[in-house]
Design a protein that fits this description.
alpha/beta; 8-stranded mixed sheet; 10 helices; 10 strands; 37% helix; Peroxide stress protein YaaA
Length: 252
């Protein structure tokens, strides 16, 4: 199984791990791309004003530029502990037991704009870069798209894509059996669906946490839907266009 999560803009500061070493991250063959982008981000962040414009930050977030400047020397922590925000607060990775965290290491990956796909327990520093940031000399969509798509497609088991559409564009999952995009929706009394924002992220965090707590062995979309139903989550086939990745609606 491969569960794909979006990152968050906000990240926990500090850490107790050794400084960034690209060779310790999952998909180690992405190291040259990660290194190139990291070096470009550090160089950009030498100029506060230029970095704030490129990263679309307001004055109150100038401290984020300092995280980028210290990218190679600051302490690291596991990716699931580094990211904060609604999804990761609901997932609450730090309170998971050791078995759940070990399962996460094998199944859950976060799609970072800076590092590409990182494993749940991969050691990463604090940084600021999002899918729509403007790095001189780099278009992030072109930079990552083929490499990430190839790594996801190489996984032969079930692929569950919980990313936002913006991050899915940076590396699409394959269109094949056993690869699904999960969209969180609400259904009103008339049966009409609407997408959610805050509760979208919260539902994805709770969904992922329950996966890690129960550690099911899921081999197909049917397995996923049946497991979700047994755990109190309502899932149904969505309305993806013909030729697109299968979509499942997670009803919040």
């Amino acid at each position: 199984m491969l569960f794909l999560l979006p990152p968050s803009e906000t990240k926990r500061a500090g850490g107790a791990g050794a400084p960034l070493d690209m060779s310790t991250l999952s998909f180690a063959d992405l190291a040259p791309l990660r290194t190139e982008l990291a070096e470009r981000l550090v160089a950009l962040s030498a100029d506060d004003d230029a970095a704030m414009r490129a990263l679309k930050l307001g004055p109150r977030l100038i401290g984020e530029i300092g995280h980028n400047r210290a990218l190679w020397t600051s302490a690291t922590m596991p990716a699931l502990d580094r990211f904060t925000g609604v999804l990761f607060d609901a997932l609450d990775a730090e309170t998971l037991d050791s078995s759940a965290r070990a399962f996460a290491a094998d199944t859950v990956f976060v799609h970072s704009a800076l590092f590409g796909l990182v494993g749940a327990l991969d050691p990463i520093p604090a940084y600021r870069l999002s899918h729509d940031s403007r790095i001189p000399g780099v278009a992030l969509k072109r930079f990552w798209r083929d490499s990430i798509a190839q790594r996801i497609a190489s996984h032969e088991g079930l692929v569950v894509d919980l990313r936002s559409e913006a991050y899915a564009e940076l590396g699409p999952a394959p269109v094949r059996d056993g690869s699904v995009f999960v969209r969180v929706v609400a259904i009103d009394d008339g049966g009409r669906k609407r997408a959610l924002n805050h509760f979208n992220k919260q539902a994805k965090g709770r969904f992922t946490r329950r996966l890690l707590e129960t550690r099911p062995q899921l081999e197909s979309t049917d397995d996923l839907v049946q497991w979700a139903g047994a755990e109190g989550f309502r899932m149904a086939l969505g309305a993806a266009p013909a030729g697109a990745q299968v979509e499942l609606d997670l009803v919040a």
